[in-house]
């Protein structure tokens, strides 16, 4: 999760987020090189009193500064399109989970099970245990098996919400009357935090998302306990 004074992204916990981080670094390097070149040209023009007559009217320079930006855009667009298609890929998911946004909490339904569903409310500050995070902990976590394709169906009951978990590279709008879907694979066990990323009312900041990734055996034990309680 994020920590104070953090400048970069959170550590990637899914293959898609790793690709997004690599694309970010790739694009940032291009922006840095362009900025350096422009700064150098500005300083050179301001600091010298000499004029090069070949720069005032040069067909070659005009060709270069027309073609070069097009090449740079291609270098950015091709990796970007690749990642966009990767994010839309949903191949043979092992589990499908429906996330339903309410004012102001989330409900989860494990559609592969007959009666496995629960509401997830934020834990109030006075009820937190030592080591838990304020405004991020919930009374029920969304538990998923690690290294398994998970399909998320996301919608809302009342107003616009947004189901977002930065470490997984996921941000999907929850729209009433519309069923959006996305997918992810968590690479390692852990607890990953997110929040509603769409201003949805007075308590918008109080509907966190907690995803817990566990080995498959532990997930089966957890699902059996949840089914017994229901």
UniProtKB/TrEMBL annotation:
A molecular-function term among this protein's GO annotations: oxidoreductase activity
One family name in Pfam for this protein: COX2
The protein's required cofactors: Cu cation
All residue ranges annotated as the Cytochrome oxidase subunit II copper A binding domain in the record: 92-225
Record field: catalytic activity: 4 Fe(II)-[cytochrome c] + O2 + 8 H(+)(in) = 4 Fe(III)-[cytochrome c] + 2 H2O + 4 H(+)(out)
Highest taxon above the source species: Eukaryota
Record keywords, A-Z: Copper, Electron transport, Magnesium, Membrane, Metal-binding, Mitochondrion, Mitochondrion inner membrane, Respiratory chain, Translocase, Transmembrane, Transmembrane helix, Transport
Transmembrane segments: 27-51, 63-85
Signal peptide start-end: none
Protein's membrane topology: Multi-pass membrane protein
GO biological processes: ATP synthesis coupled electron transport
Cofactor note: Binds a copper A center.
Similarity annotation: Belongs to the cytochrome c oxidase subunit 2 family.
Family annotation (PANTHER family): CYTOCHROME C OXIDASE SUBUNIT 2, CYTOCHROME C OXIDASE, SUBUNIT II
Protein name: Cytochrome c oxidase subunit 2
